[in-house]
Amino acid sequence: MILQCSSVQSKLQNRRSSVHHKEFELAAEFERDSLYLADWPLCQLRLQNDANYPWFILIPRRVGMVEIIDLTQTEQNQLWRESAHLSVFLKAQFQAKKLNIAALGNMVPQLHLHHIVRYDTDFAWPAPVWGKVPALTYTKEALELLKQKMALLAVPT
């Protein structure tokens, strides 16, 4: 079993090495359905363009990553640091009843981590948000207010 595990780890490391030299490209779905907010040490922070929920996405800027385990251990640690940093901010700034964090990737395989602020008054509560109501595009004014709030968020280390 240890030998098999070492073999898998070796294959993963070779895969990581071969894809890390390529340029990061954002999946077309993220370009279409979300808005750029910031580049952090590992991830690009984006806002899902759905005003029904404060919904943020961390996307590691690494090529070919699908699962969290595809990242190196150092990158995994950084992903968790960035996720925790964002989570603390969102819980405080949005006074969330619950913060949903998920890495699904069934529809968009590019590795990403959803951070969705939930309230017991939102349209989907307590069910998952996917497919419950049509997306509500942010108005220019609402987007500006949200960006001002997010400007208070420092870049994690």
TrEMBL record:
Domain of life (superkingdom): Bacteria
Pfam families recorded: HIT
InterPro entries: HIT-like, HIT-like_sf, HIT_Hint
MF terms in GO: catalytic activity
Domain HIT: 57-125
Name of the featured protein: HIT domain-containing protein
Species per Swiss-Prot/TrEMBL record: Rheinheimera tangshanensis
Classification lineage: Bacteria, Pseudomonadati, Pseudomonadota, Gammaproteobacteria, Chromatiales
